[in-house]
Specification:
Strand order of the largest sheet: 1-2
Distance between the termini: 49 Å
Shape: elongated
Number of helices: 1
Strand content: 15-25%
Oligomer: single chain
Structural class: alpha+beta
Length: about 80
């Protein structure tokens, strides 16, 4: 039987597959706080190196738990600079 058929039948019956591990919640949003402004206005392009840097965060699962990784990326080259 096709996977999409199984998915459709399970969805119709309200069934879900087993999920391994626990769900990790990394952020708890507080609507009462003001958010930082979008200085790039969602424009992630640059015409030369070192014109725009943006931060990025990742949550990596390890055997002992979760590791939070932060780094800075040059928008032009997409290279990690810090």
């Amino acid at each position: 039987m096709a996977r999409c058929t199984v998915a459709r039948l399970m969805r119709d019956l309200g069934l879900e597959g087993a999920r391994r591990g626990k769900k990790i919640r990394t952020t708890i949003r507080d609507d009462g706080q003001e958010r930082a402004g979008d200085l790039l206005r969602r424009d992630f392009t640059a015409s030369r190196p070192n014109e725009r840097w943006v931060p990025d965060f990742a949550h990596v699962a390890t055997w002992s738990g979760i590791v939070h990784v932060a780094f800075v990326v040059d928008v032009f080259s997409r290279a990690v600079v810090h």
